[in-house]
Amino acid sequence: MIEKFQDYAEIKKAYPKTMSKDQFYKVAHISKATALFLLQSGLVPCKDSGKKTRRYTIKTKDVIRYLQERIVSPEKFQAVDGWYMTRSGYGKSRNTGKDKLMSLTPEQNELLRQYFENELIGYNDLMNTYEFAFFLGYSRTTVINWCNQKKLKAFSISGSLLIPKITAVEFLASPKAYCISPKSFRHKLFIEDFYSKYNI
């Protein structure tokens, strides 16, 4: 966390008041298309001059606020479905890990199951939808929809959905989870960490 505060101080030093869209996407380590979505959707406030060049001006404090909120609620800043489809390089640059996961051997898939078992070790054997949504970086509504659609096994007690941890692990190591698109920021981080840990 100390490192994060230091990063913010460096941003303030480099851009005391405002920055351009190009500076924003580099500072935030996001694509140009994602930066454009954040600005045009109002998720990151900006001044739009309407010009062809240097069109957007973003306050540095708003960029820092975005970076802070992204850590806690990454799903809040996900682009709407289809946003990237009309932008060049979409198919090549935006890889959710689906194809690679679908080609796992049975042994590698067992490693994936064990990986998520370890990641969930601090949770109770029965998880509510808030907990699982927070763990994986999706909205609670999305998790409830998975349960209602029978993609994720859960049962209801007094009107509350509870997810057995063992079924959460089964879901995360299954094609149902592989095929989620777009994946949340946290979900993609888990996948990349798994690849790195087991040299896949």
Would you mind describing this structure in some detail?
The chain has helices at 2-14, 21-28, 32-41, 60-72, 90-93, 98-102, 106-119, 129-136, 140-148, 165-172, 175-178, 185-198; strands spanning 18-20, 47-48, 56-59, 126-128, 155-157, 160-164. The radius of gyration is 19 Å and the shape is elongated. A hairpin with a 2-residue loop joins strand 5 and strand 6 (160-164). 55% of the residues lie in helices and 10% in strands. The protein is mostly helical and 200 residues long. It has two domains: 2-92, no CATH class; 98-198, no CATH class. The chain has a three-stranded antiparallel beta sheet. It has a three-stranded antiparallel beta sheet with strand order 4-6-5. The protein has twelve helices and six strands. Helix 2 packs across helix 3 (32-41), helix 7 crosses helix 10 and helix 8 crosses helix 9. Mean pLDDT is 84; it is low at 1-5 and 88-96.
